[in-house]
Design brief:
Layout (H helix, E strand, L loop, with lengths): L6 H8 L3 E7 L6 E16 L7 E11 L12 E3 L5 E10 L4 E11 L5 E12 L4 E25 L6 E10 L10 E4 L4 E8 L9 E6 L3
Antiparallel strand pairs: 1-2, 1-4, 2-3, 3-6, 4-5, 5-6, 7-8, 7-10, 8-9, 9-12, 10-11, 11-12
Length: 215
Amino acid sequence: MVSDINAEGDFTQLAEGLESVELRRRGGSDKVAISFARQLDSVSTEANASDGLAQQADAVWHLQMPSGESAPRVGDVVVDGMGGRWTVLETQELSLLGRWRCTTRELSVAYGCLDRVDIERAVWGDLGSGPVIVDWSYAFTALPVKIQPDEIVVDDTASPSVTKSFFQIILSESILLQPDDRFVAEDGTVYLLQSYEGAERIDRLPVAKVLREDN
C-alpha cells in the first residue's frame, strides 16, 4: 500500500509555530518570500571574548521553498519576523516532507547594537602633487555596531611622546570595507580602519580594528 503524502498539507496542518520568513541569497540582492517556515529550539552562547556582549544563537529551521525556487544554500540568510538574521551553515533535503532542514546561526549583540556609526569612503583626486583624499562619501549610515577599547600604544620615539588608542568595532553584519574607509560615531569621533577580520566568515561577527583620530 502506498501512502498518500501531501507534503504541503502535512507541514501546514501538523507543524506548530509556523511563520513567514525571507531568505536572502548570499552574495547578491535576491530575496525569496517563504510563507511556511518553522524554527526549532535554539541555544545561545557568547560568540567572542566581549564581556558577554557578542552573542550567537544556533537553531534549526524547516523551510518549505515556493514552487520554482532553488534550494537554500550555505551562506544564505533567513530573516525572521523579528528581524533576526539566521545564516545557513548546513542544509538537508527532507524530500518526503517537501521541505529543507537548515542548521543556522544568528550573530547579534546582546540588548541590541547600541552604538551607531557612519562609514565614510575616501574620494581621491589629484591636486597636482599626486593622489590625495579630497572628500568623503557615505558608504553606510547609522550602522549598528559595538565599539569597545582594544589597546593603548605609547610611541616614546616621538618628541613629545604620542599615545595611540585602538578600538574594536563589532559589526552586526558582514559588509565590504575598503582600506581607506573610516568610521564616524554619533558624537563625531573618527576611527580609522586598521584591519578587518571575519568578513568572509559566515559563523561569526566581523570585527574591525580601528585607530581613534585625536585632534
